[in-house]
Each structure stands twice: as C-alpha cells, then as structure tokens.
Design goal:
It is built from 13 helices and six strands. By secondary structure, the chain is mainly α. The strands form two sheets. A three-stranded mixed sheet has the order 1-2-3. Helix 3 runs antiparallel to helix 5 and helix 11 crosses helix 12. This is Sporulation factor SpoIVFB.
Length: 296
Amino acid sequence: MIKNSFSLRVHPLLWLMAFTAVATGYFRELLIIFFLVLLHEGGHLLAAKWFGWRVSKVELFPFGGVLHTNQYGNAPLHQELLVALMGPLQHVWLLCLPYSFLQSTFHMDANLYQFWMSCNLSMLLFNLLPLFPLDGGRVLYALVSFILSYQRSFFVSFVCSCLTGGLFVLLLWLKSLHSLNIWCIAVFIVFTHWELWKKREYAFIQFLIERMATTALPVHPLRSSSEESIRFLLRRLHRGKKARVTFGESVLWDHDIIAAYYVNGCIHCNVGDVQEVLRNIHESGYNTPETWRNAK
C-alpha cells in the first residue's frame, strides 16, 4: 500500500439515510447531504495532510465524518485545532454563496435552497458541540490538554462530552422528535462514548509510543522525586509537550522513562531506579527516538 494512502468508509447510518431518501423520493436532497459531508471531511483531510499527519481511514457520517490518524495527542496545539476546525469552516463559506449563483449553476429552486441553507447551518452548529466524536469535542480536548495532563484532560473532556450528549438526548425526548435518523445518531453517540471509555488505556499506550518517536515539541519541565512511581509520572505527561523530568540533581527525558517502562519491563520501578535501568537500554540503543521512528 502507498504510504500516504487511506481507506474511505461510509458508515451504515449514512447508508440508512441514503436508502430512506431514495425510497421517499428525496434524491436531490441526498446529493446535497453527500456533497456537504464530503466537503466537510475534505477540509479535515486537507489540513491533516498539510501538517504531514498519517491518515489511515476516513469514515463518513450523516453529520460529517471521522478522520483516523496516527496522532494520539502528540501534535502541536495549533495543528489539532486547525485540523478539527477545517471541517466546520467549509460550511461558513458555503452559507455565504448567494441564491442567484446556486440557482443559475445548480438549478436550485427556493425550496431546495432552504434545504441547502438548513443542512449547512445544522452541520456547522452540530459539529461545534463539545461532544465526541464531533469537531467541538476535539477542540475542547485540545484546549483542555493545553492546561492539564493527558489523562486528566481526557477525563474532563469525556465528562463534558457525556453531559452534552445526555442533554442532547433529553432535548430530543422532550421535543418528541421521532425521526429515525436523529435517534440513530443519538444511539451512535452513546455507543461512541462507550467505545472511547473502553479503549482509553489503549489510546494512552499509543500516546506514549508516539511520544518516544517525537522530538520536535516544546519542552515542559516536570518536578519529580526518586520515590515517585514511573506509572504515576507517565500519567502526568502533557499532550504536545516534551517532558524534562528533574529529581534532585538528576535529569531524565520522557522518552527515557517510557523506554524503561516498556522496553525493559520496569513497570513497578520508581523514578530513582530508571537511571540504573537505562544503562542496559542505552547499550542496545532502544531508547533513542530515531530507533523507534525507524521501527514503526
């Protein structure tokens, strides 16, 4: 497979919406939705490729899409924000297109134009909700992780997302909205949060592995002690920042500590034990970022 290639998957929710639209005669409306979803996700993809992210899969949903990348929280903050916002920004300029242009170019009548405007506005506002896996949830996660550690920012963002999702489902219930598509999206949101929570430890491990191969990051000083557990220290690492750990007169880098934890199985060691462990690892060269980058 080509290095920069990726797979494109249409989620069953979008297929369900497409089947419903065709069965009820809303074919032109279906084309508009597909066009907006593709353009929305194209914005994310363009930004991700611009920053050199490795994209493995693009998944299309009725409300936009999900970009699956290799970035597990180690990209700079501005990259995270721009990649997340480039999708909703597509709807901003689409909303500014005049009716006369759409009428002459795409033969839109007044009713179809209203549908066009409604879809654009709905996708824009819905995707900005602080809710996973929407763009607003990713923006919230990136902003919170700028202040808190990776683990704490995940927990705070996850709780905010659950509250937002709960309010969204409650609003649907109170408004007595019986649209099958809307309730399918609500079920999908619940399932997504369950999957996200279940895979949180796997995502954290991927975050640490990516950190070992990442060097071009701002330095973030961390104070520690020789008695602090390595496992606890790793959970204090920040996204998008290279940790320089000091304890007493000694200095360690985060990739050294991660190497001791994973390569040498130093699971129950304290920070003070790492330097002794690293003497053996240094001789093999396993702890260097270049080695891990080449091995991936």
